[in-house]
Amino acid sequence: MNVREVATQFALAAVAGVLLFWGLGDKYLWQDEAATAILARNMIKFGKPLAYDGVNLVTIDFFLTEKGDIDKRVRDPKAAVDYYIGRGDMKRDTAWIWHPWGQFAAAAAGLKALGQNTVGARVPFALAGLAAVLLLYRLAHKYCGGWQTATIAALLLLADCYWILHARQCRYYALSSLLLLLTVTGYLRWQERERWGAAAFLAAAWCWFQVDYGTVWPVFAVLFVYSLAARRRTVRETVIAGAMLAAALAPFVYYYHLWGRRMPAVRDRWEIFAMSLFNTNQYVLPVVVLAAAVVLLAWRWRRLAPAERGAIAIACAVVALFVVWVPAISPDAFLRYLIIVAPLGCLAGGWFLARLFPPRYAWMPWMGALVWMATPWLSLPVTALVPPDDRYEAGTLWRWEIPMMAREIFGTRPDPNRLTVEWLRRNAAPADEILVNYEDLPLAFYLPNPIRGGIPAFRVEDDARTPPRFVVLRHAVEFVHKDIYDREMGRYRWVEAPVKIPDLIWGNNPDPMMWDNYPAEIKYLYIARRVE
User: What is the pTM of this model?
Assistant: First the structure.
């Protein structure tokens, strides 16, 4: 490794460190992050991620599946817990099974090492993001053309604003990206007959499943089909590796009840497909670049080393397959389901730019990378065919998300979750019950108080022993049982608190559908104290 390569990796690590760790604890966890942190905390306390600790409840927070006898379970906590066990959120002992436990173990390590706070919850995932940037560089350098390809691929990933914002979350996204890269790297080592290649591939694939069992299947399909098609390993070797992986995963497939699991869609599947195509084209890999990379790969196929053409073929195939896979299984077109393959999109894009131009035009790949990072021009052909709806901002001259990311990382806009928690810390006694219609889990993580409400309306009307002392209502939220909250509010007299906290649905949601999370006209949360 020469001086240039060492300096490049040091510079990449420095830039990634600033983007991933700057102000990591400034904004408090939002709903999904808090669910991960609470389950991690329960893993520390109980040895497994229990969704119900006897006081507060974690559910999958999906309103379309909120059916059954709601009036009974909003009064009786046992009826509510039994309902969510039957729905499949958790096991009979309330151990969480809607996600695998890997992300909870990672978050638990951070909470144990750094304290049960925002930084402790997020640091393991930011570290995974940093490792993913450096691993992408090493993978591209070793298998896909050397220093220029590796540097461009890593820079493209660092310029992917939404990958950075997701990697800063206390959620599986960055960890899944890292394990995806480790799985592909182990696979290439196995295909190249390097020492411990098969073991590295199977171990990385097993660990990845333990973090993100919904994403692994299309990637596993691509890897094993390519192994058979490329004939780098014998059919027998491929079948044995597949059987070993299947045997290792089978007990967990059974434990998590993965067979037949399917969530209803919030909109038409074709609409989800169109939105997923837009997200892929805008934030993962421009479709025109994907198509051009496939053409260039086919043209130069015989002149490329087997590992290089394998890595690029896998990257292109995985990105293309995800455009179909995600709309088929997910309830909506959230970017979070696609963003974990962004490193492979950057690998394919960096390779295409580096290989497209002859050596005497070595400066042109850098210009192409600059255009990619600063503008949406490469995405415009598909954006013209699949325009975004009014929840998205596409841009035409420059990437609008760059200043947005700068505001999120370096800015000081009010954080509704932090302001709410700080006010309640000052004004509520630890035993006071707090009624919250949404973003209930951040309060359950940061405060010692019993929290009732949320999308499941858990214990909203369970007033036999203690009625709620405080209420926090987000009027911006539509996906809750409004009539139940109205009933409970009507039972008591409330005095509104003299505090102005922005009424936003989410405190720190990194999805592009939230690009206008701070509207021009800010309304405020309703926070009140019950009076006798």
Answer: 0.95
